[in-house]
Amino acid sequence: MEIDIALDRVRFLNDEARKHFTDGRVVVTPGILALPEDEQYEVSYRVRTFDEFAPDSDSWDEHAFGAFEHNGRTVCWRIEYFDRDGGTYGSPDPADPYLTQRVLKIMLAGEY
Predict the structure, then answer these.
(1) Measured between alpha carbons, how far is 24 from 1 in angstroms, rounded to an integer?
(2) Beta strand 65-70 with 73-83: parallel, antiparallel or unpaired?
(3) Over the Cα atoms of the chain, what is R_g?
(4) Where are the alpha helices (DSSP H) in the chain?
(5) What are the start-end ranges of the E strands in 22-70?
(6) What is the pLDDT of residues 49-77, one digit of tens each?
(7) How many CA atoms lie within 13 A of 76 on its CB side?
(8) Which pLDDT score is estimated for 1?
(9) How is the beta sheet containing 24-28 ordered, strand by strand?
(10) Distance between CA atoms of residues 83 and 37, nearest Å
(11) Domain coordinates in residue numbering, the chain
(12) pLDDT band at 22 (very low <50, low <70, confident <90, very high)
């Protein structure tokens, strides 16, 4: 069995960024911001503790996407990789934290 070190590293960095809201930016959409403050906190907590990764939604197995139901609405989150030179372009290597700024976006499914 061949171990993909780069994939393991990307997965680790994504989990750290999501669990601790570090290494980049967190963007929360207007739909999430319109929720009552206690619900925003619950959504944030559920994103940080998410562990239900599935091949149909996280097809690259990078732990870069998740979705869950919250009070009758689907909430999803996604991590995107940008360069560190202004964040305008995609990262040349998401496994390298010195080249990559992660952006975690938390949204309602209708805002995806």
Answers:
(1) 33
(2) antiparallel
(3) 14
(4) 5-20, 30-33, 37-48
(5) 24-28, 65-70
(6) 999 998 888 878 999 999 999 999 999 99
(7) 15
(8) 39
(9) 24-28, 100-108, 73-83, 65-70
(10) 32
(11) 5-111
(12) confident
